[in-house]
């Protein structure tokens, strides 16, 4: 799958509401990365606060890997004073490059940093050029900035949520690199074991899995095909708890989705609950 980017938020720690595993050992992480490499999966999405940069970098150096395509993210600038932000960006790039040796794309992790970016875009663009980073991007949740991001000539890549219950960005058309994430919504859309006490999420998850069983819906296939059939999406970020989950993805086959299933799934919750389900920041 050429569009697939491996998300690494859970590579080191138990990120997500369905991941109940303990912190992964370096041996286990290397085994996972070796599996990716052997299956021609060369694109990885990481971030400073994921804790995965360093171990990916060690694997790259140890195995003399040159094919990997790496993206990372700059943490939020909101707690910094204005005169500290540019130096902070440089320090984060220094740290990431020290960990990974090279970078293809760097996203700003906080969409609220766009105001600062826009005011300093020429200088930030020059900083990225000096570090030989190919693309500047923003990772976003809401639609409030999308028009500005699409117009901005310095922004090359936009990472955004897209899945069978959240189609806020499904109609976006752009020549920029559009990267979809939250395909499985941290596992909520495919897994019955939730590491969370949120009653709204548990109720929705129970109804969804019951519907899938009754209608014989392959949720892995439905979630993937829903996003992959969007012609405006260039890449998708998908996270995994273990190799067996990744093997399921590699075995999946592209096929037209049954739109009535999407309607049925979206009938499982109220509009009020939908707003609480679609955005993990509200969990």
Task: Describe the 3D structure.
This protein is α/β, with parallel strands linked by helices and 283 residues long. Strands 1-2-3-4-5-6-7-8 form an eight-stranded parallel β-barrel. The model has no long low-confidence stretch (mean pLDDT 90). α4 links the parallel β3 and β4. It has one domain: NADP-dependent oxidoreductase domain (TIM Barrel, Alpha-Beta Barrel).
Task: Note the topology.
Blueprint: E1 4-7, H1 9-12, H2 26-38, E2 43-45, H3 53-62, E3 69-74, H4 82-100, E4 105-108, H5 114-119, H6 121-130, E5 135-139, H7 146-151, E6 157-161, E7 177-181, H8 199-215, H9 219-228, E8 235-239, H10 243-251, H11 259-266, H12 271-277
Spans where pLDDT lies below 50 across 5 or more residues: none
The CATH superfamily is known as: NADP-dependent oxidoreductase domain
* Basic shape: globular
SS summary, helix count: 12
Which range best describes the helical content: under 10%, 10-25%, 25-40%, 40-55%, 55-70% or over 70%?
A: 40-55%
Q: Estimate the mean pLDDT confidence.
A: 90
Number of domains: 1
Largest sheet: 8 strands, parallel, barrel
Q: Rg from C-alpha positions?
A: 19 Å
The fraction of residues in strands falls at 5-15%
Helix/strand class: alpha/beta
Strand order of the largest sheet: 1-2-3-4-5-6-7-8
């Amino acid at each position: 799958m050429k569009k697939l980017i491996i998300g690494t938020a859970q590579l080191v720690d138990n990120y997500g509401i369905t991941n109940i595993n303990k912190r992964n050992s370096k041996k286990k992480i290397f085994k996972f990365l070796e599996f990716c490499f052997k299956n021609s999966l060369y694109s990885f999405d990481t971030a400073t606060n994921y804790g995965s940069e360093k171990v990916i970098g060690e694997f790259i150096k140890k195995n003399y890997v040159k094919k990997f395509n790496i993206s990372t993210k700059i943490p939020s600038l909101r707690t910094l004073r204005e005169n500290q932000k540019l130096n902070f960006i440089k320090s984060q790039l220094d740290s990431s490059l020290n960990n990974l040796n090279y970078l293809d794309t760097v996203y700003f992790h906080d969409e609220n940093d766009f105001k600062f970016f826009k005011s300093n875009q020429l200088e930030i663009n020059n900083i990225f050029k000096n570090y030989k980073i190919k693309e500047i991007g923003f990772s976003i949740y809401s639609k409030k900035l999308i028009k500005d991001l699409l117009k901005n000539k310095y922004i090359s890549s936009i990472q955004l949520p897209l899945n069978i219950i959240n189609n806020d960005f499904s109609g976006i058309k752009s020549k920029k690199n559009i990267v979809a994430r939250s395909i499985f919504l941290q596992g909520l859309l495919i897994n019955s074991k939730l590491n969370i006490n949120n009653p709204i999420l548990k109720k929705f998850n129970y109804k969804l899995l019951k519907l899938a069983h009754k209608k014989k819906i392959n949720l892995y296939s439905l979630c993937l095909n829903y996003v992959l059939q969007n012609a405006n999406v260039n890449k998708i970020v998908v996270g995994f708890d273990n190799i067996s989950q990744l093997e399921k993805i590699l075995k999946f086959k592209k096929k037209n989705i049954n739109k009535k299933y999407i309607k049925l799934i979206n009938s499982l919750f109220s509009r009020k609950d939908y707003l609480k389900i679609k955005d993990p920041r509200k969990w």
